[in-house]
């Protein structure tokens, strides 16, 4: 029997954050400057107040013309407290005062060092029992438990922006073996695993009676919504937890294995079956508290000079100033459901190791991978999704008078209770997934072996896998209710004044094909290709003197049908964009093309007419109930469908009318498996196993990884720009590391009884001098490639409107990348051209702006454009103590990053057109991407 327990506590020191200064909390922005340039940031009376007086806070009086009127700068760059929003004013007293002295203009960045130190606690324990029932039968039993508690955030007040994580888990594994005969052994076992991964908001509620920005959550309680500041060159840290109220994610799994080992002549045969079953309970209320965004554009200079299509707010205005006025640029809220999913995997297999000759062994076998599609508790859950073949009765075509295709449906068989269900309750099962494999070993000499092999095996993807596709969140929450308010053009806050205008609790909509119109649905299809891997390897192993061992091998893998996003469903046709919009860098604003203008404009109406759209007229009050722009009326207008204006309003962009499914925005198919990758590597290892108390392993890999996808989580894939040119996504992979060198070793000091030195004496000398061991683990890895984008002036960072990938820049063939991370870290260049003695992290002249409606010709990633390499040395010293035959102890002292190496972090602006492109975005602030030197001590008692 063996038992162990491990307790761990770790104080998580918080990095500095940016808070408003006391002057700014009082509305005084006279000292606010751009931290990068030192130029003042003027704050303007919102221009939108001229046409929308409802945006003006109660008690605020502004003249209609002259100084202090809408569109002019606040006198002295100071907002009168009489113009503060009541909701905003209720939170100002909770803002801590900066702890870093305000010495020079711009120094308010990272001006608060949190005193709150969240303490992570872990407790793990386990025991196992091995018991021989008879001379032929044995029983093994393992049980383990884990408790993980992790609070987080920069403060314990209402403004905290992090949740805390509670993650208990346990596992149980009984295993039985029976030697039926000397040549036949049966082994059977069961493994049960349960893990919770829960997050909760623990910050105190906002002040009672003085803050009413949101209605209560789905199960009561008052929570601060996410309050986010953005747009300007200086913005404070966001408050609230980004809408999180709680997140419950419970995962269960059982694995049953039965293996038969039969030795017959030259054959050693294993055959059996591997059965797995998983369940998930997912209840992620990540947007239940709601989110408000306050943007600098609201309080910016309407006449602000802009470049590369930047809107007002890039150099003037401030998100916190917009917050003081209560003018929210956008807002969103979504309730969540308790979704329960499961899947099943069954794989019978056969493997034979055949001794062809004393020197040559052939291994061959096959596996039948039966990955059954995930199942949904249709009585409990409602998984709704976009189906391209569903007639959308909310979008009647002006061309045909018939519903446009493309609408929402629900997983399940059609019945009287669900007349709009898709007609099937799970995706197609594929029965033909066989996985052959073969390999060989050949002994060239008594100390040299050549080996190789090839295999084909199926991956946990496709219709089987629901976890990495976030099925519960993306498909299970739609029918619980969603509300959203987008930012509007021309500096008009899309949500408006939040005083007396709480973000409503969304109501559960009925299932109709158009209930999610104008939103971002997720797609599901019935037949999904499952990913598979092809593996080829060949190598040589050589035993060397002094118990050393050398291994060299070549490896090639090719994966197909991986999760990806390279085929976006609702992207504009690029040929149409090229024929409609001016191509090239002269088109610096997406509004310059008719596609980026209001669909009601004369130019857009002409384009709509030429496209064959019919006309529609909306009478006052004629929009369907619940329309996002229910107050829209007018006409006749050319439009793709009758209620287009009710869905997008009069200022909706013309481009939406030419989307494949104009009633929706971005559509993501989480079960798309068009991804692929290739990996080629030379792998070497040099090992000393035993002898003289010294063991070590040195391994080196020289590799190249290519791919057109960048995440196993389909939701998080960001490659996918032009569905008509998917080949452009193929490049070096985002996780490629050319060189990987790892060294690990330990040395038992030859001291004490049994050693070479100080070997006299008994237990006392053994406890004083003996039992010392020095260990190390060192890593030296190449950096991974990073992506360059060109988003300025481009709608949604892409010429095709709704794709996961940002627009690449144009690539300049002349000159090198000139990557210089060391100089960028210690002598960062903060403006171009770089001053003497300072350097940029890379050559920004390698990339140029392609145009707002032109897809750049640069590759997604380049082999020579990488983050800095990763160097790390960890060392430990341990001492054993002996208290008898059955009891011992071990004291350990460990140091991580023992040489305190500095790894520059990802703090360089990689967006072409930004004033800081290629430069350090945190001048004067350490840009460290790894942890500093850390030491810890531990003591273990073994019995």
What secondary-structure arrangement, pairings included, does this model have?
Elements: E1 2-11, H1 22-25, H2 86-92, E2 119-132, E3 137-150, E4 164-166, E5 169-181, E6 184-196, E7 198-200, E8 226-230, E9 246-264, E10 267-285, E11 291-295, H3 319-324, E12 327-328, E13 330-334, E14 339-355, E15 360-368, E16 370-376, E17 384-396, E18 403-410, E19 434-445, E20 448-458, H4 471-476, E21 482-485, E22 496-497, E23 522-523, E24 532-544, E25 548-562, H5 574-580, H6 602-610, E26 615-618, E27 634-638, H7 644-648, E28 668-669, E29 675-688, E30 694-707, E31 731-732, E32 739-748, H8 763-768, E33 772-781, E34 810-811, H9 821-826, E35 847-848, E36 870-882, E37 888-896, E38 934-942
Parallel strand pairs: 8-11, 23-28
Antiparallel strand pairs: 1-2, 2-3, 3-4, 3-5, 4-7, 5-6, 6-9, 7-9, 9-10, 10-14, 11-13, 12-22, 13-21, 14-15, 14-16, 15-19, 17-18, 19-20, 20-24, 24-25, 25-29, 26-27, 29-30, 30-31, 30-32, 32-33, 33-36, 34-35, 36-37, 37-38
């Amino acid at each position: 029997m063996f038992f162990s327990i491990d307790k761990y506590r770790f104080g998580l020191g918080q990095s500095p954050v940016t808070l408003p200064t006391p002057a700014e909390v009082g509305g005084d922005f006279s000292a606010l400057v751009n931290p990068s340039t030192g130029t003042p940031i003027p704050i303007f009376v919102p221009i939108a107040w001229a046409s929308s007086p409802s945006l003006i806070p109660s008690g605020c009086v502004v003249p209609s013309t002259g100084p202090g009127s809408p569109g002019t700068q606040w006198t002295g760059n100071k907002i009168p407290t009489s113009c503060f929003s009541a909701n905003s004013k209720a939170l100002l007293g909770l803002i801590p005062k900066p702890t870093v002295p305000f010495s020079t203009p711009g120094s308010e960045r990272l001006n608060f060092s949190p005193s709150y130190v969240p303490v992570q606690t872990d407790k793990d324990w386990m025991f196992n029992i091995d018991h021989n029932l008879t001379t032929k039968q044995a029983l093994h039993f393992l049980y383990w438990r884990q408790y993980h508690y992790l609070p987080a955030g920069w403060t314990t007040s209402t403004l905290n922006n992090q949740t805390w994580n509670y993650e208990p888990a346990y596992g149980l594994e009984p295993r039985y073996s029976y030697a039926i005969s000397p040549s036949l052994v049966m082994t059977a076992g069961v493994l049960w695993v349960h893990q919770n991964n829960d997050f909760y908001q623990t910050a105190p509620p906002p002040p009672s009676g003085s803050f009413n920005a949101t209605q209560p959550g789905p199960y009561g309680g008052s929570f601060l919504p996410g309050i986010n500041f953005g747009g300007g060159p200086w913005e404070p840290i966001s408050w609230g937890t980004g809408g999180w109220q709680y997140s419950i994610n419970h995962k269960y799994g059982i694995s049953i294995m039965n293996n038969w080992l039969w030795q017959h002549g030259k054959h050693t045969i294993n055959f059996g079956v591997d059965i797995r079953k998983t369940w998930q309970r997912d209840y992620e209320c990540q947007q239940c508290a709601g989110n408000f965004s306050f943007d600098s554009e609201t309080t910016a200079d309407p006449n602000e000079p802009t470049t590369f299509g930047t809107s007002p707010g890039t150099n003037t205005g401030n998100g916190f100033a917009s917050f003081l006025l209560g003018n929210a640029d956008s807002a969103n809220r979504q309730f969540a459901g308790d979704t329960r999913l499961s899947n099943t995997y069954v794989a019978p297999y056969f493997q034979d190791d055949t001794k062809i000759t004393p020197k040559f062994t052939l291994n061959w076998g096959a596996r039948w991978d039966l990955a059954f599609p995930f199942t949904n508790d249709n009585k409990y859950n409602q998984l709704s999704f976009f189906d391209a073949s569903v007639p959308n009765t909310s979008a009647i075509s002006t061309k045909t008078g018939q519903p446009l295709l493309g609408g929402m449906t629900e997983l399940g068989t059609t019945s009287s209770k669900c007349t709009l269900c898709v007609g099937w309750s799970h995706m197609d099962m594929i029965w033909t997934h066989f996985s052959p494999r073969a390999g060989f070993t050949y002994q060239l000499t008594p100390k040299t072996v050549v080996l190789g092999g090839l295999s084909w095996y199926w991956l946990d993807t496709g219709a089987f896998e629901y976890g990495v596709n976030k099925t519960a969140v993306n498909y299970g929450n739609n029918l619980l209710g969603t509300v959203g308010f987008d930012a509007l053009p021309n500096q008009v806050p899309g949500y408006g004044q939040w005083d007396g205008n709480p973000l409503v609790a969304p109501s559960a909509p009925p299932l109709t094909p158009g209930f999610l119109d104008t939103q971002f649905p997720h797609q599901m299809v019935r037949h999904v290709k499952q990913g598979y891997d092809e593996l080829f390897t060949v190598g040589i192993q050589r035993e060397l003197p002094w118990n050393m061992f050398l291994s060299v091998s070549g490896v090639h893998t090719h994966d197909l049908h991986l999760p990806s996003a390279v085929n976006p469903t609702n992207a504009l046709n690029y040929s149409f964009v090229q024929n409609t919009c001016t191509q090239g860098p002269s088109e610096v604003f997406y509004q310059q093309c008719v596609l980026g203008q209001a669909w009601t404009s004369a130019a857009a109406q002409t384009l709509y007419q030429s496209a064959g759209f019919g006309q529609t007229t909306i009478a006052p009050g004629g929009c369907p109930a619940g329309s996002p722009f229910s107050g829209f009326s007018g006409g006749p207008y050319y439009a793709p469908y009758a209620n287009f204006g009710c869905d997008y309003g009069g200022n909706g962009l013309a481009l939406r009318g030419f989307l494949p499914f104009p009633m929706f925005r971005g559509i993501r198919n989480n079960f798309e498996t068009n991804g692929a990758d290739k990996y080629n590597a030379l792998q070497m290892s040099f090992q000393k196993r035993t002898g003289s108390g010294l063991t070590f392993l040195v391994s080196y890999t020289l590799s190249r990884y290519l791919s057109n996808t960048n995440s196993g989580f389909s939701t998080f894939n960001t490659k996918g720009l032009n569905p008509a040119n998917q080949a452009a996504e193929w490049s070096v992979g985002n996780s490629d590391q050319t060189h990987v060198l790892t060294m690990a070793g330990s040395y038992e000091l030859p001291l004490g009884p049994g050693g070479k030195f100080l070997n006299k004496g008994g237990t006392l000398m053994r406890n004083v001098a003996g039992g010392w061991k020095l260990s190390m683990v060192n890593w030296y890895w190449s950096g991974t490639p990073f992506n360059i984008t060109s988003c300025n002036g481009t709608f949604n960072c892409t010429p095709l409107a709704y794709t996961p990938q940002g627009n690449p820049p144009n690539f300049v063939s002349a000159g090198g990348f000139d990557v210089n991370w060391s100089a960028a870290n210690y002598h960062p260049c903060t403006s171009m051209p770089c001053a003497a003695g300072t350097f940029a992290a890379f050559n920004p002249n390698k990339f140029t702006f392609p145009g707002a409606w032109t897809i750049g010709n640069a590759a997604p990633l380049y082999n020579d454009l990488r983050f800095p390499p990763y160097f790390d040395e960890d060392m430990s010293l341990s001492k054993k103590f002996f208290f008898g035959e059955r009891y011992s102890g071990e004291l350990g002292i460990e140091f991580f990053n023992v040489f305190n190496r500095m790894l520059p972090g990802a703090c360089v602006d990689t967006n072409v057109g930004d004033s800081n492109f290629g430069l350090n975005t945190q001048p004067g602030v350490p840009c460290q991407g790894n942890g500093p030197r850390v030491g810890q001590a531990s003591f273990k008692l073994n019995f």
